């Protein structure tokens, strides 16, 4: 069943979704088998042999009402390195031209913003981000690209994202992070969780090459930090 | 070490196992069998447990050989199975000896078939399951469908006495039942009356991710874009084209099209197995009916499995 909190991309809505999800992880109801937090709702899977949906829906609504919207001190904070140069900056110049600014201004806006992970979805580990500065909103490509690398940092309309697996996409990509967003061999295969807060930091191609190499070796190149 | 050689690949033959359900929130699509009941019965006929892997095929099964004796069972529909040219009826298990050729023909009255071998297929467990996700290239055997010349391993199994079912596995017929939503309110009364009164049929555009339906175009009066939310199995999403699209095993975990209704879990395997072009209708039920129907469907499969006897 789907527990709806709203119909918009809204931090307060997302906070309530994530708060209920966390609350159910800490103190689950019998019969719930899986939960998926999204932008606007919590998808709850349950086993009707253990709990009737009507009962569960009532209890979930009561729990949602009683759960304080996400206590932001619980959010994890990360600084994510991004290379905005060379082959990693697929659409940087095009986005800059469309937004009538310089590439440096695009980078400054992008690294100056605070993003929130609203949802992991679409593909394993793919992170949908909110918090894109209005000035950077850029329409998707009319024709999707057939190959966008993992780690590409993109803009799709008013949304932002980090690609997790290589594949086709119509989003505009302005840089790439060496962070591995998905690794099936990791204890927690998706690096980000809904509710995380991130900022991007520009790195040089030389630093990028070093971080790529370390990430390939399985090193943790990004760790949670205190809030800014 | 028991080896399984693919002599002729069937269509979209993949290693399947229970769905990968624990990582949906990490964006990992569940995958798993398109018809979980037929899969479970095939596994039970060869004595395998709930975590074992078997082969799934789309309509045509292919030809195989093993290096050590193994039990084999084929389920999913009516299909001609031969061992070295001798008929080996489906929905029961048979001893396959080293060097003998197993030929699995074309399914009638179904889309997805299962070939289970005693011991189960030995592929790595990825994120809790051996299931292949073809689109993501994850899990199973190299994350892909099998081709002629592939060599897989089977786990050894101690017991090799063939088994059979005491009664035929037969699902109830009738309309495909749905519950409304999650975005039922995106569609007006006219769209709903088309949805519930006109016939639909599964088109040729179907795979493990989704089945596109023939039928009336459904217009979402509130638009065909939503803020992405979760995709339950069996949800019927409607993009701007108006084509009702049923999401199945390899669906994305989230999506941005409105979903008019969700096929109840009890009827989803029946939709997956529906022959292309065969007209059917949808019927709206309430959540408690959907839950009761699932428990009935589970009991049906559980009873069939509990009653399996040595042949």
TrEMBL record, chain B:
It comes from the Bacteria. This is Biotin-dependent carboxyltransferase family protein. InterPro entries: CT_A_B (IPR003778), Cyclophilin-like_dom_sf (IPR029000), PxpC (IPR052708). Keywords: ATP-binding, Hydrolase, Nucleotide-binding, Transferase. One of its GO terms (molecular function) is transferase activity. Residues 25-301 form the Carboxyltransferase domain. NCBIfam families: urea_amlyse_rel (TIGR00724). PANTHER family: 5-OXOPROLINASE SUBUNIT C. Pfam families: CT_A_B.
């Amino acid at each position: 069943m789907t527990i709806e909190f709203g119909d918009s991309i809204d931090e307060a809505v997302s906070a309530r979704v994530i708060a209920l999800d966390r609350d159910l992880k800490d103190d689950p109801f019998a019969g719930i088998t899986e939960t998926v937090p999204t932008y606007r709702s919590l998808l709850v899977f349950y086993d009707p042999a253990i709990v009737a949906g009507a009962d569960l829906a009532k209890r979930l609504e009561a729990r949602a009402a009683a759960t304080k919207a996400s206590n932001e001190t619980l959010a994890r904070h990360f600084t994510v390195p991004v290379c905005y140069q060379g082959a990693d900056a697929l659409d940087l110049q095009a986005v800059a031209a469309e937004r009538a600014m310089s590439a440096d201004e695009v980078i400054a806006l992008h690294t100056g913003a605070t993003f929130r992970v609203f949802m992991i979805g679409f593909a394993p580990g793919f992170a949908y981000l909110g918090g894109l500065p209005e000035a950077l909103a850029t329409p998707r490509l009319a024709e999707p690209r057939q190959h966008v690398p993992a780690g590409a940092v993109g803009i799709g309309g008013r949304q932002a994202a980090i690609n997790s697996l290589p594949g086709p996409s119509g989003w505009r990509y302005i840089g790439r992070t060496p962070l591995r967003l998905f690794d099936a061999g990791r204890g927690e295969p998706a690096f980000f969780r809904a509710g995380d807060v991130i900022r991007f930091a520009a790195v040089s191609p030389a630093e990028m090459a070093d971080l790529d190499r370390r990430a390939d070796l399985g090193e943790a190149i990004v760790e949670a930090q205190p809030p800014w | 070490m028991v080896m399984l050689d693919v002599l002729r690949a069937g269509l979209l033959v993949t290693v399947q196992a229970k769905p990968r359900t624990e990582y949906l929130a990490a964006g990992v699509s569940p995958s798993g069998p398109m018809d979980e009941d037929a899969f479970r019965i095939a596994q039970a006929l060869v004595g395998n447990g709930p975590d074992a892997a078997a082969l799934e095929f789309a309509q045509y099964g292919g030809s195989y050989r093993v290096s050590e004796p193994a039990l084999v069972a084929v389920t999913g529909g009516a299909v001609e199975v031969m061992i070295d040219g001798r008929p080996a009826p489906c929905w029961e298990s048979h001893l396959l000896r080293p060097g003998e050729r197993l030929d699995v023909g074309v399914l009638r009255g179904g889309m997805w078939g299962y070939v289970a071998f005693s011991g189960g297929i030995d592929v790595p467990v990825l994120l809790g399951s051996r299931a292949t996700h073809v689109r993501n290239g994850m899990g199973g055997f190299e994350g892909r469908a099998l081709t002629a010349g592939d060599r897989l391993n089977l786990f050894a199994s101690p017991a090799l006495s063939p088994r059979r079912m005491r009664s035929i596995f037969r699902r109830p017929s009738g309309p495909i039942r749905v519950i409304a939503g999650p975005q039922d309110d995106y569609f007006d009364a006219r769209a709903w009356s088309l949805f519930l009164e006109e016939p639909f049929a599964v088109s040729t555009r179907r795979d493990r991710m989704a089945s596109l339906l023939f039928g009336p175009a459904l217009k979402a009066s509130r638009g065909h874009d939503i803020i992405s939310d979760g995709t339950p199995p069996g949800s019927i999403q409607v993009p701007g084209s108006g084509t009702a699209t049923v999401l199945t095993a390899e669906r994305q975990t989230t999506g941005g099209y409105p979903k008019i209704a969700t096929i109840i879990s009890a009827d989803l395997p029946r939709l997956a197995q529906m022959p292309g072009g065969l007209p059917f209708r949808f019927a709206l039920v309430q959540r408690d009916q959907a839950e009761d129907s699932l428990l009935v469907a589970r009991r049906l499969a559980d009873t069939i499995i509990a009653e399996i006897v040595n042949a």
